[in-house]
TrEMBL record, chains A, B:
UniProt source species: Thermosipho africanus (strain TCF52B)
Lineage: Bacteria, Thermotogati, Thermotogota, Thermotogae, Thermotogales
Domain (HTH cro/C1-type): residue spans on this chain: 3-43
SUPFAM superfamilies in UniProt: lambda repressor-like DNA-binding domains, Periplasmic binding protein-like I
InterPro entries assigned to the protein according to its UniProt record, in alphabetical order: Cro/C1-type_HTH, HTH_LacI, LacI/GalR-like_sensor, Lambda_DNA-bd_dom_sf, Peripla_BP_I
Designated name of the protein: Transcriptional regulator, LacI family
Domain of life: Bacteria
Domain HTH lacI-type residues, every copy: 2-56
PANTHER family according to UniProt: LACI-RELATED TRANSCRIPTIONAL REPRESSOR (PTHR30146), TRANSCRIPTION REGULATOR, MEMBER OF GALR FAMILY (PTHR30146:SF154)
Keywords: DNA-binding, Transcription, Transcription regulation
GO MF annotations, alphabetized: DNA-binding transcription factor activity; transcription cis-regulatory region binding
One Pfam family it belongs to: Peripla_BP_3
């Protein structure tokens, strides 16, 4: 019988910490949470509360976690480092307490279930139609498709980007540029809108550049930006990976961060804290997204014709050394 | 029929505690949770998690409904016809089921309560600061303030406007104009963004005019619009009142609706259906907004440090005779 002590030992943390993670407490770092969840998974530890909840529900609902191969590959290759792993771990743990059994499946070829959670940005309008035809509740996790009126759980990119840009403006900076991913992604579009809103409100001209992470053309982007404009005082990047690439290119050109240029990312991925310099960023609440998704699909499963809503989680500004 | 009282009795805890456990609140010890889950299991209690299970909730919360005098006056004078009346009726009805007692009060001078619901668009950044100082849970109803990270419940204006504009485009129309209220209002801004997004996606040029409902300058707006451009094929107005004003001005100029120009509103106010011609519009789910607000403030009252979210309700397109 695996005990909580075994988990604590394996994860290299205290028993109290394991218990905090199991209780979804707020004062545990994401890194620690991930370590604990990994240990739980590897040891196949069944916490008593969850076990008893499970027994009570006798696995009442089967819910499909639908992911595209593209997304799974990106996770494996750490292109989207640990992002969905954290979300899905929280989703599964919370779901268990609601008597939900999850089964992973291909987004484009779902097998029969009581409900579905469509993960990430690969869901299209056409696919929504197919899922609607299944006549089972479903929701989009980390994605929104305009005009489709489907339940979804997303991060409030607008709000976070608006806050970060305002922060830089309050610090007296004026030349604040934005480097973003493709704007057909709902996530990037929201951050873009938040940045431009804050700039326009302050009477400043937004300046932005698209970065292609497949081609990895950051060197060109930075050259182009510097040729075209004065050197920026700050760059707000639409995610941490992009911010890190920005900082590397600036360093190569002997531009100091944050002395010459402040850089802010978005996501708060695990490596953001240990980066040189540690990255100022907007923390995305991945585990809360996961538990909200579990809670919402449960509501949809037991409720009747609930009105569809978008739930959009606010981010938290984490000030580190890459910005003033 | 097993009730929540039976569970509480068997577990030797209060009904409020059972409800906290069912709602996944953080402020319940693991030991207590286990006792409650065990009682639930042994009694085979099927929680309907929400309203009905909590109907007999004994613990009364006092929650302030905070409105500005301006808003109350507007309601009385039917400038915002029945809008908040419907929302607040649903709020109070649902709240009762959660054991919440509501008291109406001045937005700018709240008296002591367990929580607050700030109604409408008059809440400012500064006011948020004052409410945060009260250290009690609160949420914004029908309003959002960028960067403040406060729980809020709003209508998804973007999505509805995007849908309506797309609808007109699909019908073969190209000259689709937008007449909107002041864009510093979150509601109007979202609808504006949805309209422009759909137009730009289709490669069409957005054309928009601001209407001032205090000055009631619709006659001038329509004259200016017609002088400046070709006659539109459709006008999307940012609410029903505005759409009705548009139609009246078009009629005066012998322009037929929908034969010459399709007109679409937003809100689905009571008079939209009996208008001549009956108004095509986006229905705002006022009662669902009210009940969501009650549910959310309850979660905030019993939970601890819940992560702040924006809940944004999708609208529904209601096709009537004012548009093709």
């Amino acid at each position: 019988m695996v005990t909580i002590e075994d988990v604590a030992k394996k994860a290299g943390v205290s028993i109290a910490t394991v218990s905090r993670v199991l209780n979804n407490a707020n004062n545990v770092s994401e890194k620690t949470k991930l370590k604990v969840w990994k240990a739980i998974e590897e040891l196949n530890y069944k916490p008593k509360i969850l076990a008893s909840a499970l027994a009570r529900h006798k696995e009442k609902f089967r819910v499909g976690i639908c992911e595209s191969k593209r997304l799974i590959d990106m996770e494996k290759e750490k292109v989207v480092p640990e992002f969905y792993t954290v979300i899905l771990t929280a989703l599964e743990k919370t779901g268990e307490a609601y008597g939900i059994k999850f089964c992973k499946m291909d987004l484009f070829n779902p097998s029969e279930c009581d409900g579905y959670i469509l993960v990430g940005g690969d869901t299209t309008k056409e696919l929504i139609k197919e899922y609607k035809n299944l006549k089972k509740p479903f929701l989009l996790l980390d994605h929104y498709i305009p005009g489709e009126k489907v339940d979804c759980i997303v991060t409030n990119g607008f709000d976070g980007a608006y806050f970060a840009t305002k922060y830089l403006i309050k610090k007296g900076l004026r030349k604040i540029y934005h480097i973003h991913g493709p704007l057909n992604s709902y996530g990037f579009k929201g951050r873009f809108d938040g940045y431009t809103s804050a700039m326009e409100e302050a009477g400043l001209l937004p300046k932005y550049y698209e970065y292609d992470d497949v081609k990895d053309n950051m060197s060109d982007v930075i050259d182009f930006m510097l040729r075209k404009n004065e050197r920026p005082e700050a760059i707000f990047a639409s995610n941490d990976i992009t911010a890190m690439r920005v900082i590397r290119e600036l360093k190569k050109r002997n531009i100091k961060v944050p002395k010459d240029v402040s850089v802010i990312g978005f996501d708060d991925i695990i490596s953001a804290e240990s980066f040189d310099p540690p990255l100022t960023t907007l923390k995305v609440f991945k585990d809360e997204m996961g538990s909200l998704a579990a809670k919402r699909i449960y509501e949809l499963l037991v409720g009747q014709d609930l009105h569809p809503i978008m739930m959009s989680l606010f981010t938290k500004f984490i000030k580190r050394k890459s910005s003033i």
